[in-house]
Structure formats: C-alpha cells, structure tokens
Amino acid sequence: MRDCGGCTMCCKVLGIAELGKPGGKWCPHCEIGRSCRIYEDRPGECRTFHCLWLLRDSFGPEWRPDRSKFVIYGSPDKAALVVNVDQTVPDAWRRPPYYENLKRWSAEANQDRTHLIVMVGDKATVILPDRDVPLGPVGPGDRIVSRRVIVEGRERIEPSVVRGG
C-alpha cells in the first residue's frame, strides 16, 4: 500500500464542509508538500476520502496527484469516478497519458451506467466515449444524471444536472 509522501493535492482541490474550506483553496491545516497538521483529529470527510492513486498500484508515478495536478476518487454514492483538477492547471486532465486513459475508462463507466466526471472548481465535464460534455457549475446537493436517447438509430447518452436546492 502506498502513502501520500509529500503529496497534499487533496488538501487543495477538495472542499471540506466541516472546516468551511472551499475547493481550490489550501486547507489552513495543510503543511503544503508535507502533511496535515491535524491528521489524527482530521474531519470525517477527510477520514472517509480515498485517493485512487493510493489504492491502485496500476497508477504509475505520473498519476500521483501532486504530479498530475488532479485527484481521482469514487463518488460517495458510487455513481461516478471523479477527477478533481487543480484550478491553476485546468487542462491537466487533457494531457497525455491522462486523457486517453480517461476516455477508455469512460467506456467502462458507460457500460456500468456510471459517470466519469472532471471537476475544475465547481464546473463539471462528463467524459463520454464519443465526446466530452461540459455541464457548467455543479453545486452541493446537485446530481449529474444521464438519459439514453436514440439519435439517428444510435443510442446516445445525454448527461445533465439536476439541481438539489
């Protein structure tokens, strides 16, 4: 099993409601490039978060979040694989080797009827095998849903945002 080492990217890109910390801002408890100063007493949101780079040996060193500039994790409801990107490098997910892998994974997610979502700040893009669909802002309580429609005799996925508020 891997450890974070000096990676603290999750401390930047993720919003932590328990701390009133918005996504895209460094956590006040983060010692950037080192570790969390309150690790033993960290909030529940941080305790239950699982970075996939830590969990999947198949991700090479280039996928480490402080190198790739994004954090990959499963949504709490298991309906999506989320790529949360550092807003200072908004196109990091489009660089090789990331984008081609994300496209491949989107085909697998499509078969499982789940989503592959890229978040840059509060803006979401759903990656589909045939195209990327920018959805714009997605807030707390909002859900991304998809419906399958037939266009010119072919099935097509149409993602949208259902507002929670």
Can you walk me through this structure?
With 165 residues, this protein is an alpha+beta fold. It has helices at 10-13, 44-48, 52-55, 65-68, 98-111; strands at residues 30-31, 35-36, 70-74, 80-85, 115-120, 123-127, 132-137, 143-151, 154-162. The chain has a five-stranded mixed beta sheet with strand order 3-4-5-6-7. Strands 1-2 form a two-stranded antiparallel sheet. The protein has a two-stranded antiparallel ribbon with strand order 8-9. It is globular and about 55 Å long. The termini are far apart. The model has no long low-confidence stretch (mean pLDDT 93).
Look at the helices and sheets and give the structural class: alpha+beta
Cα separation of the termini? 40 Å
> Helicity, in percent?
10-25%
Sheet having the most strands: 5 strands, mixed
Strand content: 25-35%
Task: Estimate the mean pLDDT confidence.
Answer: 93
List the helices and strands and how they pair.
Elements: H1 10-13, E1 30-31, E2 35-36, H2 44-48, H3 52-55, H4 65-68, E3 70-74, E4 80-85, H5 98-111, E5 115-120, E6 123-127, E7 132-137, E8 143-151, E9 154-162
Parallel strand pairs: 4-5
Antiparallel strand pairs: 1-2, 3-4, 5-6, 6-7, 8-9
Quick recap of the structure?
By secondary structure, the protein is of the alpha+beta class.
Descriptive terms for the model:
165 residues; alpha+beta; five-stranded mixed β-sheet; two-stranded antiparallel sheet; 5 helices; 19% helix
